[in-house]
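Changelog excerpt

This revision adds worked examples to the README so contributors can see how folded entries look when concatenated. The first example is reproduced verbatim below.
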Amino acid sequence: MVNFRPVPSGGVPSACEHAPIYAGVINLRLDGEPVGFVDVWRCTKCGMLFAEERRYPPRDDYELGFREPRGTLAIAVCSSGEGYEWMLVDAAPGAVARCGECDVEISEGPTASARGCEVALVPLEEVLNRNLELREVLRDS
């Protein structure tokens, strides 16, 4: 399902003076109800993606903004038996996704698990300008 393409170590040279333009949005839903969205921008010079998440209801415990990612920007969809959660992650090897009470290390693959938490990664490129149903992501992974 997921075509996972990590950025080679070192990423895009930092010499790029990024000129991002709006590329689109990803709408996130749980059982058809909106739970948030991710705005995505693309640099017109080097093609790098940047993203920012918004949640329903709004929360203040997240931030990614326009920092230069080390890996592939992805949506991590988590299930810990107590429901579903999602987060915007810089999916570089060694990064950690926090899912409820679990910290799940992200490897180079599209899925991971730890202590009863299941996490599926969906690269932003694959779902840009689409709706993403959280339950379907974990069911199809």
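The second example, added in the same revision:
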Amino acid sequence: MVFEICGGWWSAMSGAISIPFGFIALFAEGNPRTYFAALAFIALWVFAIGVVRKNYKILVIQKPERTRALLTKMVDSIRSEKPIRTGSVANDYWRSMQPADPIGALIKFSDEIQSEDDLKWLCGEFIKLGYVSPFKPFEPQLGKDVAWLPILKEARLNQHEIKDQGRLLQFLALTWTGKEMWKQGQARVTANPTLENETVSVRNE
């Protein structure tokens, strides 16, 4: 990246900009130092604009590609998980027909998620693909605007791997450093029948 920016900057300063200023300094009236000072000032701005354009390209063009590649990695990870057998053919069949839970993959690859916006995009894509909504069951207790990325990263370091919403619920209530927030939210839900009726049951797998 540095080479690309400096290469374009060097080309501009050694030709299109420096040559006209050189002629002005040689043949025009006035102090040549003033013209070369102006040339140096323009050089600084050309370099700064090059850096901004390159950063924009990285953030706007390459970032969606990286996020989509991460989504593909998560989907592959979910597909590679072996289903848990309960010993009951009917129960195992019923469980196999339920939408897949992406919580485990979101936690597993949380260190590769760069922002809350990226996390929201990933969750939206999972829902479009037919997966369960990752955080909807926890909205009555934590609200819709809670920052989930720090929670996922903390859950990533939990002693026991968290692979589904049921285990995430246990983490939030018992281990999470913000568990007091969860307890307050749960008390609010219990005291408000309307919120309690809106609560979506968490799948225990």
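Reviewer comment on example two: The radius of gyration is 28 Å. The first helix runs from residue 2 to 16.
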